[in-house]
Amino acid sequence: MHGGTIAIRAAAPLLVLLLVGLLPPALPTYAESGLAWWEKPFTSWDVEWFLSIAGGGYTTEQRLAFFPMLPWLLRWLGLWGVILINCILRCVNLWLSTKLLGRLGVDGGKELIFALTASPITVFETAPYTESLFATCSMIFILLWVKGELYSVQILMTGLAGLTRNTTVFLAGYYLFTLLFNVPKGRRMISLALLPVPIVQTLVPLKCRLSTFYNRSVGVLESMQLYSAIQERYWNVGFGRYWKLKNLPRFLLASPWIYYSLHSLWMELQRILKEDRFRPSPRLAVCLHNMALCILVVSTANVEILTRILFSSTPWLYGYLSTQRKEDQLWKYLFVGYASLGCLLFGCFLPWT
Length: 353
Prior knowledge:
It is a multi-pass membrane protein. This is GPI mannosyltransferase 2. By secondary structure, the protein is mainly α. It has one domain. The protein is about 70% helix and about 0% strand. It is built from 17 helices and no strands. α4 (about 70-105) packs across α7, α5 packs across α16 and α13 runs antiparallel to α14 (about 280-300).
């Protein structure tokens, strides 16, 4: 892996966002925010929520939808400290992705490096969002699960991820996969013991936040109900709530990644079924993780977040697309287009989430 590639991955989106700061923002209130021009492109959309939580805590119900890790980092390190951490983690994640995909038998070569460098979620990996941090925790966990080692570090990674994003609960699926298929072999008892850990590490911090906010003891089951109600009331999250004609452009924005997720699952199942007997591998587990997230977002969440949820949770689509035939190179244009538009629109406070 060339140092130039790593430098481009870290510096390019940062420079683009700084240049975008010279453009007038789309919202007048944003223009009058008092921020310096070089700070404005990094404080759009959800960053405002993270900054408000960092400064004032969980003082409204709406803020309870956000997990505390990033606000803590913003409070301790400041805006530019978090941006620097994200740039470093982007480089770390490039290395982790190539290592993990190599363990899964995916060799994308230069195509993989291109995919990771021109990631469609570049802007969210650079701005103070959770993408880079969650990707690091998720990929370290998956890599160690594949290797079958350092269970204490696996628990640490799911713990950090549980403070960062609610989709941490899906990491429990890897232990379930081991229980069902004994893949990797000989680890069923350990997997049975660790199966509830990612779920508990996500729900307990949520329970504590809700108990503090409502000034009463909130049970685990009640915390799940309250969190779902908050997501539904303020963020329009719930089964089928986003399936409206006015949201068609958002579904179209997510459609390439829906298609690639479905196609990659189909191809992986075909590959397995061609063998003499059905032999699920860790590679299938990562593919199923990607597909489960796709189904969740399309069915219940704001579908425009699908891109960043998928690409920051596993490197599966990076690996799958990098091994496509030379005739099937549309994904490269999609990557460059999403990365470029993302930096431009996000930096100008135009819709790109």
